[in-house]
Amino acid sequence: MSWFTSEGKCSHHVIRSQTRYARNPADARFSVKAEKKLIDQFFEKAEALLVKNGFRKEILPEGALPEVIALAEKGFIDRDFLYYEGTRSLFFNEPCNLAVSLGGSDLINIRSLLAGNSVSETRNIASGAENLLDREFEFAYSDTLGYISYNPALCGSGVEFSAVLYLPSLRLNESAEKLRYQCAIIGTRLFPLLSDRGGDLYLLSHSPAPFSSEVHAAQSFSSLITKIVEDEASAERIIFAERDKIIIDRAWRAYGVLTNAKMLSENDLLSLSSDIRFALAVCKDTAALPPVSISALNLLLADGLNSSVIAGCRECKSAVDCDCARADFVHNKLASN
């Protein structure tokens, strides 16, 4: 599962796309209420089916330890799965960019993640896994409500499309509330991905109406992403017209700190990476920019947050240790870019 080592359509502004299916077996609708015997039978059958079809089981420690939180930082699981105390397991199918988590409020969560604006592609991949499980399990379904989910927002279609967007002009021209309102009118949610840590990253998500066409909904959501990115690019051109030298200088300053700092906090990493990403998005003279690719920036974002750093270091005992380990990680990744 390496969406963060590649680039996709509109990759300067679209970090990743995701399609998520939430499903529950008809005889064990919600893990919090189902009998343990039914849950055990479900896990035994589902795990065997996934292994048979090329999935690899990820060994998960108990609790919300850094190794597990790091998976949430990358988008492979959600917070509900983090703190779930019952039986849980996670499976990856790397060639297909698929993650399937078993356990949590909804017993089955299927996720496909790809770089850039790739909503329809992730839907095609995730629906294949959903069909695989659908052939073996009867899902909880109502003729009037659609698929039954523990999350009311997912009841009906049981699917969610989402994308992580880089939108610096929203902060600079204070248009975030207007865009959020426009998205809400069509049933789409837009909010900061890391509200307390910056980076100009936003999560856009949409759950199709019950009984609507998933294919059409995925295409419409992808078109919305394209429209937002086009508006973002136009705003950037207006705000930063004829300021290439300033933007390039800021990118090189950021690159200098990232490659030489002995300590880097999460805020440092997000802010400095944002300066370089912005230069890659708006500057015409790419040869004048620091030698950093979009995929390298995605990798720093995916593996540079606190839990990922702690999980990879094992020697971090304080925030200072973590900042030092993050700086070493960034140096190594940029040197090999």
What does this 3D model show about the protein?
It is a single chain. The protein has 2 domains: 3-237, Glutamine synthetase/guanido kinase, catalytic domain (Creatine Kinase, Chain A, domain 2); 244-335. The chain is 46% helix and 16% strand. The chain has helices at 36-52, 66-73, 79-82, 119-134, 168-172, 176-185, 214-239, 244-260, 266-282, 294-303, 306-313, 319-335; strands spanning 14-23, 56-58, 89-93, 98-102, 108-115, 141-142, 146-147, 159-166, 188-192, 201-206. The strands form 2 sheets. It has an 8-stranded antiparallel beta sheet with strand order 2-3-4-5-1-8-10-9. A two-stranded antiparallel ribbon has the order 6-7. Helix 2 (66-73) crosses helix 11. The longest helix is centred in the last third of the chain and has 26 residues, at 214-239. The protein is globular, with a radius of gyration of 21 Å.
Give the CA-based shape: globular
Q: What level of helicity do the residues show? A: 40-55%
CATH topology value of the largest domain: Creatine Kinase, Chain A, domain 2
CATH architecture of the largest domain: 2-Layer Sandwich
N/C terminus separation: 19 Å
The fourth-level CATH homologous superfamily of the largest domain is Glutamine synthetase/guanido kinase, catalytic domain
Number-wise, the strands total 10
Number of helices: 12
Short précis:
The strands form 2 sheets. Strands 2-3-4-5-1-8-10-9 form an 8-stranded antiparallel beta sheet. It has a two-stranded antiparallel sheet with strand order 6-7.
